Amino acid sequence: MPNERTIPASLHPVKCPRCDHYCRPTEATCPRCHASLAGSKPIGFPDELPARTITAPLDLTRQANFPPDARLVLVFWKAAHAPLTLALDGPLVLGREALTISGEEACDLSPFDALQSGVSRRHCLLRRHGQNLFITDLESANGTHLNGQLLVPRQGVILAHEDRLTLGMLRLLVHFDPAPVG
Predict the structure, then answer these.
(1) How far is CA 31 from CA 10, 23, 39, 73, 104, in A?
(2) Are 14 and 40 in contact (CB under 8 A)?
(3) Please, are residues 27 and 21 in contact by the beta-carbon 8 Å criterion?
(4) CA torsion, points 72, 165, 6, 25, in degrees to nearest 10?
(5) Who is most buried in 9, 32, 70, 95, counting CB within 10 A?
(6) For 108-165, how does the pLDDT look when each residue is reduced to its tens digit (9 = 90+)?
């Protein structure tokens, strides 16, 4: 990506040691359970994860445990933005001021520099199916990348814990809360 810079670890969000809530790096205590965040390790960003060599197309049959009570946490590349936690009770469109269709919810990413990052109004769809969470590009203008690979529009792919997701140029790290065991 052009003009990328490395964000120092001291500016990364931290995870509460008591309730696993994602907190701003400037908070001394967790806003959810009020536990001290002293000594909590910052969450790594995508360029700090082990490199994944992509030698084959995405495995469309891979499994990723996303139980019914799990929430999706999107950690934004820019440390100024707090992580976004989504319950995913039904289909959810990610975009800018997303227009919804019957039965869908929408998550407006405008406060996260979505316009400047090339995020479409209806960029992608997240949908839970059994123990999996699927992401589908909605024919976005600038594409959706999963772990460095461009998704085929209108083709659902399973999203997994610690996947790297890029909407246009808006880069995210995917966390499942609670994280899968194993």
Answers:
(1) 19, 8, 16, 16, 29
(2) yes
(3) no
(4) -10
(5) 95
(6) 999 888 998 899 999 999 999 888 999 999 999 999 999 889 999 999 999 999 899 9
Q: How many CA atoms lie within 13 A of 8 on its CB side?
A: 3
**10 Å Cβ neighbour count for 56?**
7
Report the amino acid identity of residue 91.
Answer: P
